[in-house]
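Key result, reporting period 2: structure in, sequence out.
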C-alpha cells in the first residue's frame, strides 16, 4: 500500500531527515551493440564505443549514427575489443579524445597475440570521422589471450593520462613484476611519454610508465572529490576490490586476495594480507564483476547522494550506490535492479545526472532522472 510509505516520508520530512526517492531510468538511445564507454559531446550529443570496434555519435534525440572511420585495427574476441573512451579536458577547443582497445600484434603470425593500447585522435568538426589517430602507448609484452585487458582511462588534474591494464589471465604472476605492463596502472603524458616523476622511472629493470602494480583486471577508474584516484577490479570467484591508488604501491594480486581459483581452491598462499602490499578498501564476496564507476559531485538527487560512489555490476545487473564516509564504505544501495542488464559504464553528465550503458547486443544509454 502506498499510504504507509507516504506517511513515513512525511514523518521523515517533519523530523528534518532528507527523503531520497529512487531516480527513474530514462532510455536515451537503444540499438547500440555491446557498448563499452560513453563521453559527452557539446550540444547534447554523445560519443559511444562498441566492443566490436566501432565508435558512433548519438544525437540528442537518441538517433545512433554510423561508425566513424579512423578506428585502428582491433583484436575482437572474448573480453577484447574497442573499450574505454574519454574526451580531453580541452576538447571544445582541440577536439582531442583518447580511447583504449585490444591491439593485435602486427609482428605475430596470425595475429594471435595482443595487448591493451591507448590512442589519441581528433573528432572532425562535422563529427563524421576520427582524424590524426596515433597510438601513444602499447602494453608490453603482447600475450596470446582474449581476457583481462583492463582498459579504463582517467585524465588527471596534472594533465597526464592514467590507464588500467589487466594481467591477461594467463600471466597473473607478472602483475608482481615491474619489467612488464601486465596488471598495472600506467601513467603517461598526452603524447605517451613517461612523466619524470613516475615512481619507477629511475629503477633499473622497471618500465617507466608504471604508476602502481599488483592488479588483476581493473575496469573502473575515477577521481574522488578530494583528488584521490579510486579503482575497482575483478577478483576470481570473489574478491572484487575497491582500491585507492597511490604511486608506487603494490596492491597484492595474486599474492593477497579474497577470491579463489575457478572451480575452488586457494590462490597461492591463500592469504589476504602481507607486509608491503595494500589491502583493498572494500571487497565483494561473491563477485559483482564491477565495471564503470563515478563519484557524484552534484546535488541533482539531493544533498544526501552527493559524494556517493556509483559502480556498475556486470554479473548481477544493477547499479551500486555506495555511501562513503571518512574514506570508508558505510552502506551500499542497489539501483536499477528491475532491468537486470549488465551495466558496463557509469558517468556523470554535464547536467549533473548519472548515465549508464548496458552491455547487451541491443545496448542502451540510460539517464537516471530524479
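The corresponding designed sequence is given below.
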Amino acid at each position: 500500500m502506498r499510504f504507509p510509505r507516504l506517511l513515513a516520508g512525511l514523518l521523515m520530512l517533519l523530523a528534518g531527515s532528507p527523503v531520497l526517492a529512487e531516480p527513474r531510468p530514462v532510455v536515451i538511445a537503444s540499438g547500440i551493440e555491446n557498448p563499452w564507454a560513453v563521453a559527452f559531446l557539446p550540444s547534447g550529443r554523445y560519443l559511444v564505443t562498441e566492443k566490436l570496434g566501432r565508435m558512433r555519435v548519438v544525437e540528442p534525440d537518441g538517433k545512433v549514427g554510423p561508425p566513424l572511420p579512423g578506428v585502428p585495427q582491433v583484436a575482437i574476441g572474448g573480453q577484447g575489443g574497442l573499450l574505454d573512451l574519454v574526451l580531453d579536458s580541452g576538447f571544445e577547443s582541440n577536439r582531442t579524445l583518447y580511447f583504449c582497445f585490444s591491439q593485435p600484434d602486427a609482428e605475430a603470425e596470425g595475429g594471435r597475440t595482443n595487448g591493451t593500447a591507448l590512442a589519441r585522435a581528433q573528432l572532425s568538426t562535422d563529427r563524421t570521422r576520427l582524424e590524426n589517430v596515433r597510438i601513444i602507448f602499447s602494453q608490453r609484452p603482447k600475450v596470446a589471450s582474449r581476457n583481462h585487458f583492463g582498459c579504463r582511462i582517467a585524465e588527471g588534474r596534472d594533465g597526464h593520462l592514467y590507464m588500467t591494464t589487466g594481467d591477461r589471465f594467463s600471466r597473473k604472476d607478472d602483475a608482481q613484476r615491474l619489467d612488464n605492463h601486465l596488471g598495472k596502472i600506467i601513467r603517461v603524458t598526452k603524447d605517451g611519454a613517461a612523466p619524470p616523476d613516475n615512481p619507477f622511472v629511475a629503477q633499473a629493470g622497471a618500465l617507466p610508465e608504471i604508476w602502481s602494480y599488483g592488479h588483476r583486471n581493473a575496469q573502473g577508474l575515477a577521481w574522488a572529490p578530494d583528488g584521490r584516484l579510486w579503482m575497482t577490479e575483478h577478483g576470481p570467484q570473489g574478491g572484487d576490490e575497491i582500491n585507492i591508488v597511490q604511486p608506487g604501491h603494490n596492491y597484492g594480486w595474486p599474492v593477497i586476495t579474497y577470491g579463489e581459483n575457478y572451480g575452488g581452491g586457494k590462490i597461492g598462499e591463500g592469504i589476504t594480507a602481507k607486509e608491503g602490499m595494500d589491502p583493498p578498501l572494500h571487497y565483494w564476496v561473491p563477485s559483482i564483476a564491477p565495471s564503470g564507476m563515478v563519484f557524484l559531485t552534484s546535488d541533482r538527487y539531493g544533498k544526501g547522494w552527493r559524494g556517493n560512489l556509483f559502480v556498475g555490476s556486470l554479473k548481477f545487473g544493477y547499479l551500486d550506490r555506495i555511501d562513503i564516509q571518512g574514506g570508508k564504505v558505510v552502506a551500499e544501495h542497489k539501483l536499477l535492479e528491475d532491468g537486470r542488464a549488465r551495466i558496463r559504464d557509469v558517468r556523470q553528465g554535464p547536467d549533473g545526472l548519472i548515465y549508464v550503458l548496458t552491455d547487451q547486443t541491443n545496448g542502451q544509454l540510460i539517464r537516471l532522472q530524479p
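The first helix runs from residue 2 to 14. The first strand starts at residue 24 and ends at 32. This case is discussed further under Risks and Mitigation.
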